[in-house]
Each structure stands twice: as C-alpha cells, then as structure tokens.
Amino acid sequence: METSKKIVLKFPRLLADKPIVYRLTKDYDLQFNILKASITPSEEGLMVMELIGEEEDYHQGMDYLLQSGVEVQPLSKDIIWREERCTHCGACTVLCPSGALIMDRDTMKVSFDAGLCVACELCVRPCPPRAIEVHF
Amino acid sequence: MAKTYQEINEKIKRGEAVVVTAEEVIDLVKDKGTKRVAKEVDVVTTATFGPMCSSGAFLNIGHSQPRIKIQKAWLNGVNAYAGLAAVDLYIGVTEIPEDDPANKVFPGEFRYGGGHVIEDLVSGKDIQLEATSYGTDCYPRKRLRTWIRLPDLNEAFLFNPRNAYQNDNVAVNLSSRTIYTYLGVLKPQLGNANYCSAGQLSPLLKDPFYKTIGIGTRIFLGGGTGYVVWNGTQHNPTVLRGENGVPRQSAGTLSVLGDLKQMDPRWLVGVSFLGYGVSLMVGIGVPIPILDEGILFHAAIPDEEIRASVIDYSDAYPQRKPDIVGEVNYRELKSGKVFIQGKEVPTAPLSSYSRALEIAQILKGWIREGRFLLGEPVATLPSADSGITFRPLKERPIQDQ
Predict the structure, then answer these.
(1) Cα B272 to Cα B14: distance, rounded to the nearest angstrom
(2) CB contact under 8 A, A89 and B352
(3) By the number of CB atoms within 10 A of the CB, which of A38, B93, B120, B366 ranks highest?
C-alpha cells in the first residue's frame, strides 16, 4: 500500500555531508519532495520533506535513517495554529498556498488542516495577532 | 408609529424589549416588510471587530514619593505621551519601542507596541514603567522605574479618536512586487484583495446618516461599556453614496471612550502588520433604536447592497491619486473571491466578522436582560448635508532664511 508522509529530519554535524536522501530513493524506492532544507552555522542539517512510497519501504527507510543517526519526527507537530489567539481575520487564508488555512464562508471562521500544511511558513509573520507558530 | 428613546428604555427595564442583531433583522424585513418589523423590533445591535489604528488609552499612574512631573515615559519600552500634568500618560496603539528595528530589515516584524501594551494591561499583566523628568521644587524626582498594573491605576480609559470607519477601501496591488500595508500583505498583479469592514453588521453602515448614533450613544467597547464622545477624526460624511444612502467609500467615523478596567483582552488584541507596524483590534458594538421605519430600512440593508471601492495600494493610495480600480459589494467580498479587471481575485477580511457577530449577540443579551440602556445622543454627528469634507494637507513649504 502506498503511503505519503511529511517528516522533519535533523542531521547531526557528522552526517551533514552524507548523501542520505539519495539512499532513501536508491535503496528503498521512496520518492521525495523537499519542502525546506537548511544547515545551521554549527553545521547541523534540518530538512522538511514529503516521502511517498510503499508502506513497507517507508518503514525500512525510517529504520535506515534512525540507524544512521538522523532524528525523525512527523511534520504536523511543528506548525502550531493557536486557535485561542486567532481572531479569524482571515489574513492568512489568501497567502496559504496549500489550502491548509481556509475560511468557512458560512461562519466566517478560519480553520487549519495540518494534513494539508506544507510548512512553507508564508502565513507566520503576516498573521496580525501572530497566532501561528513554527516549532522545530 | 414612531417610538422614543424613553419608551424603548422603559421596555428594556421591564425586560420586554425586542432586540435582534443587524444580521437577523435582514431576513426579518425580507419576510415581514419594514412596516411590521419597525413596530415589532425595538433595537438592532450592530458591531465590528477590526484593527483600529487611531486608538489609545489615558492612564493616571498615581503620585510617587517624592513626586515626579513626568516628562518622558515608557511602558514596556514603548514611548507614552507625557505632555500632560504630572502623572497622566497617553499610550497610543501604533507606537513602537524606541529600539525596534522597524523597517530597517524589510519587511519589519513589529512584534510589540502600544496595542500590545494595552492588551497586556487589560490582561492584568505587570507592565514596566520608566519615566524621566528635569525636577522642580514641587516635583523633585528625576527618575522612576517601577512595575505597574491596571487595577492599581487611578483612572485608565480607552479614548480612541477614530474608530468604526463607515466603509473602507478594498486594497489590491497592481505592481509586480509584494507590498506590505496596513491592510495586510498584498501579492503582486492582483494576487489578493483585502478589505476591512463587518459590512452588514458594521455600526455606521447601518445608520448611514447618523440619525441615532451621536454624542452620548452608549456602546459596547472592548468588552465593557463605553460612549460615543464625538465624531471621529477624518469624519467625511459628504462622500459619494448609493441610492440607499450608504457611502461607497470610507466616510463617517466615531471617537469613543470607555473604562479600560471593565474591558477584556478578548476584545482588545494587539496586532502586528508585517512591514507596516503595530495596532490594536478593537471590539465595538452599537445599538440602533428602531424609532421609525426609515431607521429600520437602513438597519436592514444587506451585504449585497453595500459597496466598496477597490484601490491600488502600490500607487494610487500612497501617492494620494483619486484612481479607483473598481467597485465590489460585501456579499462578493465575503464569498472569498471577487472579479477585478476580469480576473478572479481571492479576498481576506482583516476585520473579523465572526467576532463582530459575537459582539452583536452579547450586546443583544445585555439589552434583553435590562443591563444596558440606550443613551440618547445629546448632539448629532455632522451628516451628508453638513458640507464637511475630508481636507488633504495643503503643503506650504518653509523656505530657510
């Protein structure tokens, strides 16, 4: 069964120059879509990606990452919409490219679907009450 | 048959007043007609909850020992105006900390400012006050650094010089780069259209000629009780109006006042506009007494009959050119997309309709329970026949000698 998951990978300094993502494709037949990648000044790497492939291949790929010393966590935990802070002004809804932040036209209320979020962060700073937080 | 304020207030005291929101009254009038509804309904509650930049609070912090006549003051690092007596301050919502990088790295984030100070005060948080002065015989102290909090202040009242704008521009960007405005982030080439009005719920759109909203009108302000104390600054009642009398551009405004100690941070939210600055979202609710059929007719005007002008914020607005890109109505705006120059453009409100509706319902509850009586205006606001227009600045450059 095919699966598609968005994950955050943290690479320790020693692994920052290793072709880890290449191995995921080559050895485990996983397609990848990089949503964000950066290397900090202390040379730790951070990558947000979507992985698509067979369920079994995906799990083996995850085992490979963990054995290599890469920290893996699901993405949905990382973009936090603080509903209690949101005023439902809708400023984010015209900027969100994936339809994760939408406004219900009957209630005129904003909602956030973490499953659709691609963590592009375009909504974060334009939110007037700063109700959207990024946690890595 | 006309009603009076006194008659309606008597009904409110007896718990018999019929109160509906400005949203509910629309369908009522469609079903039953204005004549019947004008007899049945006593009050229509209107509301708005949006960023209102011309707002601020007066605070009297009490006298220190020894006394200080404050010359300069900062609340959590944000400059407060101190050019009043000794310990009276005014904190404006758009003030930013003196060390804020502002737009030096564009677009600036503007994480904290006067609006946030007011929200923090109302939330009951401790605020850092720093003050300096030059010292006098009667006020010898020159420096002050202390924590203050709202319940300990003598007086604290919100006094907003311009709120509840009667209609506002729909902002678009015709240029080829993203721009950062008080109406939010505008993507290039008509990428989005941002507006800022509660439309059919908005107080002045439901009383377009200010027949009932005047000086002395009692209102819901920031969760407490407040008053309309004057017309707002830039009050512009003589703009182009539709056949129904509703202004098609930004027109009338209100100056409002209320006790900060009664207010609630749910209705006063400090906000940051990327690349622009800070502000405060303010919740206002205004009751419209249905004194006659004419007042009801206006109170029942729906979104589709309220129009707003689309303005290009990359050029026409900053350069103060009169050009208008088009006109749309609030029903279209609320649908999430409008057509401008033949292109489908997604819309965002900035003003929160759902929170405005909540305010209209709270105010309806207060009036029904007999907790809130109508204030009869002691004077009316300048209206469409006043001849008052919004004057631009005529610059007279000063020649150096």
Answers:
(1) 45
(2) yes
(3) B93
Count of CB atoms situated within 10 Å of the CB of B114: 29
Q: Is B358 part of the contact surface with chain A (CB cutoff 8 Å)?
A: no
Q: Testing the interface with A: which of B352, B355, B358 to mutate, by most A Cβ within 10 A?
A: B352
Residue A48 — very low, low, confident or very high, per pLDDT cuts 50/70/90? confident
pLDDT score for B272: 98
Cα B12 off chain centre by: 27
Chain B environment of A128 (Cβ under 8 Å): 51, 184, 271-273, 279, 281, 350
Residue A11: the pLDDT is: 86
Q: Which of B97, B55, B52, B107 is nearest to B73 (CA)?
A: B97
* CA B306 to chain centroid: 19
Give me the pLDDT at residue A4, please: 83
Q: Looking at the predicted structure, is the pLDDT value of residue A42 above 80?
A: no
Residue B349 contacts A where some CB pair is shorter than 8 Å: yes
Burial (0-12, 13-18, 19+ Cβ within 10 Å), A34: exposed
Residues of chain B with pLDDT under 50: none
Catalytic annotation, pick one of B99, B134, B137, B138: B138
pLDDT digits (tens, 9 = 90+) for B97-127: 999 999 999 999 999 999 999 999 999 999 9
CA-nearest of B219, B361, B244 to B299 is: B244
Sign of the C-alpha dihedral, residues B236, B241, B245, B250?
A: negative
The answer, for B283 touching chain A at a CB cutoff of 8 Å, is: no
Q: Is the pLDDT of residue A77 over 60?
A: no
Instruction: Choose among B239, B241, B349, B330: nearest CA to B22.
Output: B330
Backbone φ and ψ for A113, nearest 5 degrees, come out as -110, 100
Neighbours of A117 (CB within 10 A): 23
Q: Using an 8 Å Cβ cutoff, are B376 and B213 in contact? A: no
Strand, coil or helix: B296: helix
Nearest-by-CA chain A residue for B276: A126
Do residues B185 and A126 lie in contact, with contact meaning Cβ atoms separated by under 8 Å?
yes
Torsion of CA B273, A100, B49, B179, to 10 degrees: 30
Q: Catalytic annotation on B138?
A: yes
**Pairing state of beta strands A79-81 and A132-134?**
antiparallel
Interface probe with B: pick from A83, A84, A85, A89, most Cβ of B within 10 Å: A89
CB B217 within 8 A of CB B380: no
**B63 with B311: CB under 8 angstroms?**
no
Query: Tell me: the pLDDT tens digits for A85-114?
Result: 999 999 999 999 999 999 999 999 999 998
Which residues in chain B are contacts of A131 at CB distance < 8 A?
Answer: none
- Residues B11 and B9: their CA atoms lie apart, in Å, by 5
